[in-house]
Design a protein that fits this description.
Length: 367
C-alpha cells in the first residue's frame, strides 16, 4: 500500500471527445471490447501503481459510473482504508466562482485535505494501456520534482492525431506542442506534489481560469520543476469515434489482444454473472470477440459483441461493434457499424458504414 499517493481520474475535460458514444454517458464508462469500460484501464493501472484511494471527477453523466464502480473489491481496492469515490458536480456553494474542471477540484477539495498522501497521480481515460506507473512514481519522488509527466516515444511513420506532444531537453520538459513530426506523445497522465496541486488550483480559481492542465500547468510551466518519464508497452489513444473504432478493430488480432489484456496484469472490471455464450446450429464466428450472455444464430466476422446480445438466424455482423442488450433480428446485415446499448435492428434491415466513418446507432433506437 502506498499511502503517499492519491489518485484522481478527471473526466470533465473529455466529455464530448467520443461524440455519439458519450451522449448518454461519461467518457470513462464507454464500453470497450465486449466486457470492459475505458475507465477500467485507468483504475487498474492506478491500483497496480500502489494507489489505494481514488476520486473520479465524473462530469454530468455519472449514473453508469456509479453502477459500474459500486464494488471497489472488483477493481483491486482491498482493505478497510481503500476507497473509490465517484464525485459528481456540486453546485451548492453560492460563493463558488470556480469554472470548468476547477469546480471539481474546488468542490471536492476535502479529497485532498483529508488525504495523507504527499503526491497525486492524475489521469483521464483518453489514454489506456495495460501497464502501471510504478517507475514513473519512483522517478518523481526520487527527483523531488514538482510535476512528472508520463509520456511515450514513438518512431517511424507517426500517424496524425490531436494527441499532445512533449518538448523535452535532457531530463526536463520544456513545453507541449501539436507538431505532428514530434514522436514524444503525452499520455495525459502526470504525478504532482499535493501542495503544488493545491496552489495551482487556487491560482486558477483566483484568476478565473477554466482548465487545470492548460491554464494552471501548461501556461505556467516555467514556474515549476518539471520532468518526464516514458512508459514502454501496448498503448491506445481515444480522441474520436474513429479512433475508438480503429482501436477496437486492431485488438481483434489474437496476439495483440492477449498481450494487451493479459500482458503484465489482468485488467480488472465489474464481475458479470451472465451465462456462457450460446452458439446455435448454423452460427459462425471468425476473428471476433464475443462476450458471455450472447445468443448467436447468425454469422459474425471481425467484430466485437458485448454481453446479452441476440443475433438472429441468417443475420450477418461484419467489422462492427455491438454494445450490450442489442437485438439483431433474422436476415439483418450490419457492416462497419457501432450499435449502442439496447438497440433493435429489425428483420432484413441493412446498415452499412465505412471503415473511415462507421455508422453509429444511438442508444435504445429501433431501426
Amino acid at each position: 500500500m502506498n499511502n503517499e499517493l492519491l489518485g484522481i481520474i478527471n473526466l470533465e475535460p473529455e466529455q464530448d471527445y467520443l461524440g455519439e458514444l458519450t451522449y448518454f454517458r461519461s467518457s470513462g464508462s464507454v464500453p470497450f471490447m465486449g466486457r470492459y469500460r475505458l475507465i477500467d484501464f485507468t483504475i487498474t493501472n492506478m491500483v497496480n501503481s500502489g494507489v489505494n484511494v481514488t476520486g473520479v471527477f465524473s462530469g454530468n453523466k455519472f449514473r453508469s459510473l456509479l453502477d459500474h464502480l459500486n464494488r471497489k473489491e472488483e477493481f483491486g481496492f482491498e482493505g478497510k482504508h481503500a476507497r473509490i469515490f465517484v464525485l459528481p458536480p456540486d453546485w451548492n456553494d453560492p460563493s463558488d466562482i470556480s469554472q470548468g474542471d476547477l469546480k471539481y477540484f474546488h468542490n471536492h477539495a476535502d479529497l485532498l485535505r483529508r488525504s495523507k498522501a504527499e503526491h497525486v497521480l492524475i489521469s483521464g481515460t483518453q489514454f489506456v494501456s495495460n501497464d502501471n506507473y510504478t517507475e514513473a512514481v519512483k522517478s518523481h519522488r526520487e527527483s523531488g520534482r514538482d510535476i512528472t509527466f508520463v509520456g511515450e516515444e514513438v518512431s517511424g511513420n507517426i500517424p496524425e492525431s490531436p494527441v499532445l506532444r512533449m518538448v523535452t531537453e535532457g531530463e526536463e520538459l520544456k513545453g507541449f506542442t501539436h507538431d505532428q513530426s514530434n514522436g514524444h506523445l503525452y499520455t495525459g497522465v502526470y504525478i504532482i506534489k499535493k501542495c503544488v496541486l493545491e496552489n495551482i488550483v487556487q491560482f486558477c480559481i483566483d484568476n478565473y481560469k477554466q482548465n487545470l492542465f492548460h491554464h494552471g500547468i501548461r501556461e505556467q510551466l516555467e514556474n515549476y520543476d518539471t520532468g518526464f518519464h516514458n512508459i514502454d508497452g501496448n498503448t491506445l489513444y481515444f480522441h474520436s469515434v474513429q479512433s475508438y473504432f480503429n482501436n477496437s478493430m486492431a485488438l481483434l488480432d489474437k496476439e495483440r489482444y492477449r498481450d494487451f489484456f493479459y500482458g503484465q496484469k489482468k485488467v480488472k472490471t465489474k464481475v458479470s454473472t451472465n451465462p456462457p455464450t450460446l452458439y446455435k446450429n448454423d452460427s459462425s464466428v471468425r476473428r471476433s470477440v464475443v462476450a458471455n450472455g450472447v445468443t448467436l444464430e447468425g454469422s459474425v466476422e471481425n467484430s466485437v459483441i458485448s454481453r446479452n446480445v441476440w443475433i438472429g438466424k441468417g443475420a450477418t455482423v461484419k467489422n462492427s461493434i455491438i454494445f450490450a442488450n442489442c437485438c439483431i433480428e433474422p436476415g439483418a446485415h450490419l457492416e462497419n457499424v457501432i450499435l449502442d446499448k439496447d438497440v433493435r435492428i429489425t428483420e432484413g434491415r441493412q446498415l452499412v458504414g465505412s471503415e473511415e466513418k462507421p455508422y453509429v446507432v444511438a442508444k435504445r433506437s429501433t431501426i
